[in-house]
Automatic annotation (TrEMBL), chain A:
The chain crosses the membrane at residues 12-36, 139-160, 181-210, 339-361, 373-397, 409-428, 440-462, 474-496. InterPro entries: PepSY-ass_TM. Pfam families: PepSY_TM. It comes from the Bacteria. It comes from Neoroseomonas lacus. Keywords: Membrane, Transmembrane, Transmembrane helix. This is Membrane protein.
UniProtKB/TrEMBL annotation, chain B:
The chain crosses the membrane at residues 43-60, 67-84. InterPro entries: DUF3325 (IPR021762). It holds the Pfam family DUF3325. Keywords: Membrane, Transmembrane, Transmembrane helix. This is DUF3325 domain-containing protein.
Length: 515, 108
């Protein structure tokens, strides 16, 4: 080996980070906001914001489903929670087009329909985070898994490369060009290192059934359905007996479940063969009660109310998977915990961003403005500054597109991608620094526009209404947009100040050379 | 309580930071730290970081507390790195002030 170990690690770190940097930033940032997926979804459905979970939601919703779909083979009901005041019911109906499924948003107090504007809500960012958009799902997940693997390689090689982790722990030297980018990159990485390692590793684990299927295929002899049944506690459907029998009252079952879970709340209800003698009622515990997402489950006989089976997911493999998955998605522990996760995740996004910027700054200083450097710079602007602007466009489209518009869900998403595509192309036609300044300012303006347009389009969900009512779940989105605006505006000012700095200064030289 | 945990961790990190020559110089204008003071700062730093851990446990319990603590450490260290080059004295002055405010907040 010609080069030393540390040099080869530095090489690996430099190039592995660049290969996936842009996509990784998008994955990181959409994942970061996905900690608040239910809140974003609720913000984007202002019509539902006044709904409340109610105290007898399970009873109300099951009674309503008996009225609506008495002959359906099964109902899946996602129960309301602190974070989502609406019950969502899904059931199979062969007459429904196109997929033979129907769904309804139910008011958990009355069982009535809650009509809201059509939107993908926070689910769009969440899905983009691990399966991107428009690609076949397995391929997209492979790409994301690959990015996560490279990320893990980058983190480990970065730790080896960074010799002065403790000596430089608090070091940040601003206005020194490349030095500052390196300091910033290292500080963002070091200060949240436990988080970065955790989130990357657990991210790989969430997709491990796809990337490493062999243990499952071996242990379940190639039968994935059997694996799903064993892991998720969902058994294969039993055919109806044809003997009409009413469903047992659910109130005692709810009490039984809560007693067994020491007060844990019901997150999901699954009813199979309702109205038949073979009916079963399954309760799964809510995710927010524990770190692990492996759900405690109770299955009742649907006609007698007797407990058929319970599932306490405490086997070592199950608990390991559940806890890793739970750590990744961070649904436990409430708002303050999520805010802490959010901050670390934001630092992760910034770490990826500063890494790709550092690559270009370093490259330009070393070998001048070649075509490769210029390409990286162009992609940096659109991928890093363009994304938050496009995300703001997505929220704005939610308020500005007509509520009755056909294909509304798709158009919100198209608005996001059209905006992002324009911003990816825009740096081609501008000087490097100009492109940064314009896109950062645009992002700041668009982020400010979100709460402003909210006031005009849907006054009921604007800050003036949500703050006095202590609705932090909704006000938080507007406030976060304002905070992002300050952040982006601050970055734009910094780019401007660096341009104005005297050229003799060592750091300013290579960025000024960009012009 | 989370505020208190962050405040304690902040004070701890500041103490450890001031025990380093370069940062001591940035705040107090001299890189020379008397060796007793250095030891005292190091001890205080680690003790304060340690103290933020039971605060998290008290707030979150044993299942969530250790996870929250990692986030608390990150949230406490970030403002130090951002303040140090611009407002070094304010950064140091906040170290005793924040835990007191945090404790008052936790009592209310």
């Amino acid at each position: 080996m010609k080069a030393g170990f540390r040099q080869s690690m530095a090489w690996l770190h430099t190039w592995s980070g660049l290969v996936v940097g842009w996509l990784l930033f998008a994955i990181f940032l959409t994942g970061t906001v996905s900690y608040f997926r239910p809140e974003i979804s609720l913000w984007m459905r202002p019509e539902l914001q006044q709904a409340a979970p109610g105290t007898r939601a399970t009873e109300v919703v099951i009674a309503e489903m008996q009225r609506r779909a008495p002959a359906a083979p099964s109902w899946i009901i996602l129960m309301p929670s602190e974070r989502n005041p609406v019950a969502s019911a899904f059931w199979r109906d062969p007459t429904a087009t196109p997929r033979g499924f129907r769904q309804a948003q139910l008011d958990p107090r009355t069982g009535g329909d809650l009509a809201a504007r059509a939107t993908a809500g926070g689910d769009f960012f969440y899905a983009f985070h691990f399966q991107l958009f428009g690609l076949p799902i397995p391929i997209a997940r492979w790409i994301v898994s690959f990015c996560a693997m490279v990320m893990l390689v980058s983190i480990v090689s970065g730790i080896v490369t960074h010799r002065r982790i403790f000596a430089d722990f608090f070091t940040f030297r601003p206005r020194k060009g490349q030095r500052s980018w390196l300091d910033g990159h290292a500080a963002l990485a070091t200060l949240a290192l436990p988080y970065h390692l955790m989130i990357t590793y657990t991210g790989l684990v969430t997709l491990i059934a796809l990337t490493m299927p062999w243990p499952i295929l071996t242990n379940f002899e190639g039968n994935r359905a059997a694996y799903t049944a064993a892991v998720f506690g969902i058994d294969e459907a039993v055919p109806r007996a044809g003997v009409a029998t009413p469903l047992t009252p659910v109130t005692p079952l709810v009490a039984e479940a809560k007693a067994r879970w020491h007060g844990g709340e019901i997150g999901r209800v699954l009813v199979t063969n309702p109205g038949d003698s073979t009916a079963t009622i399954t309760f799964q515990q809510q995710d927010s009660d524990r770190v692990s997402v492996s759900r405690r489950t109770i299955i009742f006989n649907g006609t007698t109310g007797a407990v058929i089976a319970t599932r306490e997911p405490d086997g070592p493999a199950d608990a390991t998977r559940g806890v890793m998955y739970g750590l990744h998605v961070g649904r436990f522990g409430g708002g303050v915990m999520r805010a802490l996760f959010f901050l670390s995740a934001l630092m992760g996004s910034a770490m990826v961003a500063t890494g790709t910027i550092l690559w270009a700054v370093k490259r330009r200083q070393k070998s001048g403005a070649g075509a490769g450097t210029r390409l990286v710079e162009i992609l940096n602007v659109g991928a890093i500054a363009g994304l938050p602007a496009a995300m703001a466009i997505y929220l704005l489209a939610n308020r500005l597109l007509p509520v009755e518009m056909a294909g509304r869900i798709t158009w919100e998403v198209y608005c996001f991608f059209i905006a992002w595509a324009v911003l990816l192309l825009h740096p081609l036609f501008r000087s490097h620094r100009r492109a940064w300044q314009e896109q950062l300012w645009l992002g700041a303006v668009l982020q400010v526009a979100v709460p402003v347009v909210n006031v005009v389009a849907t006054p009921g969900s604007a800050l003036a209404a949500t703050l006095p009512a202590w609705r932090w779940d909704i006000a938080g989105i507007d406030l976060a947009c304002l905070a992002f605006a300050v952040l982006l505006g601050g970055c734009a000012c910094m780019v401007g100040r660096e341009a104005a700095a005297p050229r003799q200064r060592r750091g300013a030289v290579q960025s000024a050379a960009a012009e | 309580m989370t505020i208190l945990a962050i405040a304690l961790a902040y004070a701890g990190f500041v103490a450890l930071c001031l025990a380093m020559e370069r940062h001591h110089g940035e705040v107090f204008g001299t890189r020379r730290i008397p060796s007793r003071r250095r030891v005292a700062l190091r001890l205080a730093g680690w003790a304060l970081l340690a103290a933020s851990f039971p605060t998290c446990i008290a707030d979150w319990g044993w299942a969530f507390g250790p996870i929250a603590w990692c986030g608390v450490l990150t949230a406490a260290a970030l403002p130090i790195v951002l303040l140090l080059p611009y407002r070094p004295r304010a950064m140091a002055a906040l170290a005793p002030a924040l835990p007191i405010l945090g404790a008052i907040g936790a009592c209310l």
